[in-house]
Design brief:
By secondary structure, the protein is an alpha+beta fold. 19% of the residues lie in helices and 34% in strands. The chain has 8 helices and 20 strands. The strands form 5 sheets. Strands 14-13-17-18-19-20-11-16 form an 8-stranded antiparallel β-sheet. The longest helix has 17 residues.
Length: 424
């Protein structure tokens, strides 16, 4: 009887561990049935994040962790902010963020939304073993939620109606005409993503449907005149270059029949190819030796109008064999830094063949060194599609993406990197 009681307790603990925390996620769990279990179940203020896995994959899931970040009042109130999580399946690593960003229309509010994303990325860096931002640390990243971006009619028409009622009438007319292309062209998030001001490198599916905000809480689609209709609810994703073709979005659609909110939720279906773990005992003793890296026009992060840049080397594919982060030397007060061989680390590799190197990605993340606060991100790039001109040399053209401090404006920096494979 005692043994049976112990077994019952273990079963109860296991069941409790897989039981979602929020009432909403519990309802989702009941709908999915016993064939799925929650590997992530978090609620933070008004936000909820759940990740459910089918039973056949459960034994292949590992490295699960979560992190929350508030961007509300004084950056501590969780009415706005995000929940992030990471997990691995087979050889693939995943990052997922749900967020509720700053509300209301206008350029100033849009910039606050962009700033919220930066705060969430900084606050969830601990999800990465190398303390990198989630967008540079994993093979696939999904960013979902009420991002609250609105329409900027000046992007598609001139002059723009001054009165709110007239703007509402214009957009609802487009909805009646099903002119989805014009509505999406007016979307301020689409415009900022194209400029590289926010969510650089992320993709979005075909938005050929009506805006999802602001609606009456009923099953029909009726807009409230308090707000101009907008695409507030989004599903974005980003993948590393070597696995970008492994993700295919099957559909993206609003659930018009859901009437419990002033938002209509959106649903996206994806297929993702995942390789099984291919660990091998035999590894080649190879290293990457960098001879020269040069950058131009980096963003000034310091008060004196300069930055103190350095590079962190990272591989989401795990081919870098090092227990600590590999970094270059810091170049003091320089927006056009250049690193010679002496200032760059030799990067040891853990690979079973040269083909593994060809199929893998190495990320270059540039930071500004700060003594009194956390280091600022200056840009990131990935080296992929390695071209072996001879057994020792690899020539790679790298595009460094620089983010400005105020509007996070994209700058493209070209640098020529010569990499050399050096046997240990």
């Amino acid at each position: 009887k005692k043994k049976d009681k112990k077994k019952d307790k273990k079963k109860k603990k296991k069941k409790d561990a897989n039981t979602p925390k929020s009432d909403f996620l519990q309802r989702v769990s009941l709908f999915l049935g016993e064939g799925f279990s929650a590997i992530v179940s978090e609620n933070y203020g008004e936000m909820v994040l759940g990740v459910f896995i089918c039973s056949s994959l459960q034994n292949h899931v590992y490295n699960v962790s979560t992190k929350m970040e508030a961007t509300g009042l004084l950056r501590v109130v969780a009415n706005k902010g995000g929940i992030g999580c990471r997990f691995s399946i087979g050889d693939a690593t995943f990052g997922v963020i749900t967020s509720h960003l700053n509300a209301h229309a206008g350029e100033e509010r849009k910039l606050l939304r962009n700033q919220d994303t930066r705060e969430i990325l900084r606050g969830t860096k601990t999800l990465s073993e190398s303390s990198l931002e989630i967008t540079s640390a994993f093979h696939h990243v999904f960013w979902i939620g009420d991002l609250n971006y609105r329409l900027n009619l000046s992007q598609v028409m001139d002059p723009v109606p001054e009165q709110h009622e007239e703007k509402f009438k214009v957009v609802t007319q487009w909805v009646e005409e099903k002119d989805w292309k014009k509505i999406y062209e007016a979307d301020e998030l689409r415009a900022d993503m194209e400029k590289g001001a926010v969510f650089f490198g992320f993709k979005e599916g075909d938005m050929s449907f009506h805006p999802t905000f602001k609606v009456l809480r009923e099953k029909e689609l009726k807009y409230l005149e308090q707000r101009v209709p907008a695409y507030c609810d989004r599903i974005l994703w980003k993948s590393m270059p070597n696995v970008a073709n492994d993700v295919v979005q099957q559909n993206l659609e609003p659930l018009t029949w859901v009437g419990t909110s002033d938002h209509k939720p959106v649903r996206g279906n994806f297929t993702i190819k995942i390789k099984k773990n291919t660990e091998t005992a035999e590894k080649l003793n190879l290293s990457l030796k960098f001879h020269n890296i040069k950058c131009e026009g980096l963003d000034a992060k310091d008060i004196g109008g300069a930055s103190d840049p350095y590079i962190v080397f990272f591989s989401p594919d795990g081919i870098i064999k090092s227990k600590k982060s590999l970094k270059s030397q810091v170049v003091m007060a320089n927006l056009n830094p250049e690193w010679s061989e002496k200032g760059l680390p030799i990067v040891p590799l853990s690979v079973s063949s040269l083909e593994n190197v060809c199929e893998s990605v190495i990320s270059f993340i540039i930071y500004d060194k700060d003594m009194t606060s956390s280091d600022d991100l200056l840009g990131a790039a990935e080296v992929r599609r390695w071209l072996f001109l001879n057994p020792l040399c690899v020539y790679v053209l790298v595009h460094f993406i620089c983010l400005s401090f105020l509007a996070f404006i994209l700058q493209i920096i070209f640098c020529f990197v010569v990499l050399q494979l050096v046997p240990d």
